[in-house]
Every structure is written in structure tokens, then in C-alpha cells.
Amino acid sequence: MKDAFSAALARAGSAVGGAVVGELKKRGFDALYAPTKEQALEAVLDLIPAGASVGVPGSVTVREVGAMEALRARGCRVIQHWGDMSSQECAQARLDENAADFFLTSANALTQAGEIISIDGMGNRVAAMAWGRGELIFVIGLNKLASTLEDGIRRARSAVIPNALRLGEETPCTKAGRCVDCRAPSRACRAMLILEAPPRGRAVHVIIAGEGLGY
């Protein structure tokens, strides 16, 4: 199913991706379109020098393009809170991710007007996007493109469901199969960030991949 969607994106992706790149540049983002995930990875590696520290939050997209292995292979220190870690180790890793030379992540939605929408349960990822020591790099598949800001917010909320299922979390939305704007203690949507322009004094790179990646 995902392969069929990716093929459809590839057929129309160049024109659509190019148009969104233009809107992102108007907002001050450094942006480019990469037709394939392999080319998206090349673009990431062009930005990150060997030996740099790279913070990577819980991004499926970053892992799908093969960035983790490629960065380690060139001697980068990759910092993540993914995997078998104690709560203390996880908390420290989140802090270290934000302090790295680069913060490499994805977003939950990207509008045709160039607005980048992300939603979090812990808040560490959106905090690092809004403010961090190093450069910020997004890799965003065309499957996350939304026509309007309202559609983008809707898409961001719906993306929480597969991610919660991946983490084994029982939330009202995983049970209902849709966003129910809950007030439950297990709520996964807790912090939302809309980047309308790069935060002042910070380089923000956006790589749009012409494939379906992540949730």
C-alpha cells in the first residue's frame, strides 16, 4: 500500500515539491526537493560534517532514510532516546539531543504555504525545534503535505495514532481510530508547534522527499 502511494507521489512530486520549496524559501527556510529517500539522505549528509554530534528524536522518517547508520559510518556522534534505556538515561538523552551540533528530525505536517506543524506528548522535540544550540534539519515526505493550516493540524493529530500504536500506548484515539480531542491522562497530543519562519539566529534546513515516509 505504501509502495503504491510512493509511486503516485513520485509521478506528481517534482512539481508539487518544487512549489512548496519555493514557499519555504520565501519564509526564510533553506529548502530543497529530493525525489527519493536516497537523495534525501545525500542532502542530509551534505549538511552534516564528519564527526559532528547529531540529536535525533523519535523520528520514523529519519530512520527510514537510513540516516542513523550513515551518520555513524562517517564518525558522527548520534544521540537518541530510542531503544532500551532507563527513564533517567532517556531524560538525559533528550537534553543532549537538543544540545547537539545538529538536530535532525521530521514533522507531522507541512502545508502548501510552507508552514511546518509538529505535535508532541513529552514536548522535547518541539522544544528543540523552537530553540536549540545547533542547526535544525527537517526531512519531510510528501505524504505529509496538507493544503491548508487547518488540514495540517488535522493531519498532525491523526499522525499521533500510528505513533502511539508503535509505542504500545493505549489512548482514546487508538481505541476510536480517530482524534477525539480527549482530556484523558493518557493523552498523546500535548504540545504543538507551528513554524512559520526559522527562529531568529538559527539555520533551518527543510528537505522534502518525494516519497511517503513516516506517519
Explain what this protein looks like in three dimensions:
The strands form 2 sheets. This protein has a 6-stranded parallel beta sheet with strand order 1-10-7-4-2-3, sandwiched between helices. A 4-stranded mixed beta sheet has the order 8-5-6-9, sandwiched between helices. 42% of the residues lie in helices and 21% in strands. The protein is built from 8 helices and 10 strands. Strand 5 (109-111) and strand 6 (116-120) form a beta hairpin. The protein has helices at 2-26, 37-47, 60-64, 67-73, 87-98, 124-130, 149-166, 172-176, and strands at residues 30-34, 53-56, 77-80, 102-105, 109-111, 116-120, 135-141, 145-146, 191-195, 204-209. It is α/β, with parallel strands linked by helices and 215 residues long.
Summarize the structure.
A hairpin with a 4-residue loop joins strand 5 and strand 6. It is built from 8 helices and 10 strands. Helices cover 42% and strands 21% of the residues.
Keywords:
alpha/beta, single chain, globular, 21% strand, 42% helix, 215 residues
Topology (SSEs and partners):
Elements: H1 2-26, E1 30-34, H2 37-47, E2 53-56, H3 60-64, H4 67-73, E3 77-80, H5 87-98, E4 102-105, E5 109-111, E6 116-120, H6 124-130, E7 135-141, E8 145-146, H7 149-166, H8 172-176, E9 191-195, E10 204-209
Parallel strand pairs: 1-10, 2-3, 2-4, 4-7, 5-8, 7-10
Antiparallel strand pairs: 5-6, 6-9
Helix pairs in contact: 5-6
